UniProtKB/TrEMBL annotation:
<dbReference type="Pfam" id="PF13540">
    <property type="entry name" value="RCC1_2"/>
</dbReference>
<feature type="repeat" description="RCC1">
    <location>
        <begin position="58"/>
        <end position="116"/>
    </location>
</feature>
<feature type="repeat" description="RCC1">
    <location>
        <begin position="6"/>
        <end position="57"/>
    </location>
</feature>
<dbReference type="Pfam" id="PF00415">
    <property type="entry name" value="RCC1"/>
</dbReference>
<keyword id="KW-0677">Repeat</keyword>
<dbReference type="InterPro" id="IPR000408">
    <property type="entry name" value="Reg_chr_condens"/>
</dbReference>
<protein>
    <submittedName>
        <fullName>Secretion regulating guanine nucleotide exchange factor</fullName>
    </submittedName>
</protein>
<dbReference type="InterPro" id="IPR051625">
    <property type="entry name" value="Signaling_Regulatory_Domain"/>
</dbReference>
<feature type="repeat" description="RCC1">
    <location>
        <begin position="117"/>
        <end position="169"/>
    </location>
</feature>
<dbReference type="InterPro" id="IPR009091">
    <property type="entry name" value="RCC1/BLIP-II"/>
</dbReference>
Length: 174
């Protein structure tokens, strides 16, 4: 729940830390503030077992361990970034040189749209939704502009296993 003043509240299942309250109950029926998000939040998203937030300054946070099981299975021997295993908001690494305006979540993937019209994706690519040949992207990867006919992306939506992006002129499925 994103309040008018940019605070984030959460409720529901917390079995995988997806509520962003690390020592909270496994189930919460009364919305509670995610205290670790100090800066004003402008966009939120919830996946199956993870959640995201973009702050007013364009920083992306992710929490919930849902993507970690796919990452461990599909990237054996590789150390996963903290934001994939955190039960509290953790800054998504790999986006330091961009300013996020929007975040999205599918069942097992995440995405971020920047103020420059660039789309970054990470997580499971089981259904090809990340426009990559890799089965799993542990860090954000930019979808190349040529996939959008060199147009800037203006809006993005995520389904359970797909992404849809809108450019200034066209709608393309990524």
């Amino acid at each position: 729940i994103l309040t008018e003043n940019g605070q984030v509240l959460s409720c529901g299942s917390n079995s995988f830390g997806q509520l962003g309250v690390p020592h909270g109950p496994r189930r919460c029926v009364v919305p509670q503030a995610i205290e670790l998000l100090k800066e004003k939040v402008v966009c939120i998203a919830a996946g199956l077992r993870h959640a995201l937030a973009a702050t007013a300054s364009g920083i992306v946070f992710q929490w919930g361990t849902g993507l970690a099981s796919s990452g461990r299975r599909l990237c054996p021997g590789q150390t996963l970034p903290l934001f994939l295993t955190a039960k509290e908001p953790s800054r998504v690494t790999g986006l330091e040189n961009s300013k996020a305006t929007c975040v999205l979540a599918g069942s097992d993937h995440s995405a971020s749209l920047t103020d420059a019209g660039e789309l970054y994706v990470w997580g499971s690519n089981k259904h090809g939704q990340l426009a990559s040949l890799a089965a799993f992207l542990p860090l954000p990867q930019k979808i190349e502009a040529r996939c959008f006919q060199n147009e800037k992306v203006t809006s993005v939506w995520s389904g359970w296993t797909h992404l849809v992006a809108q450019t200034g002129l066209l709608w393309l499925r990524a």
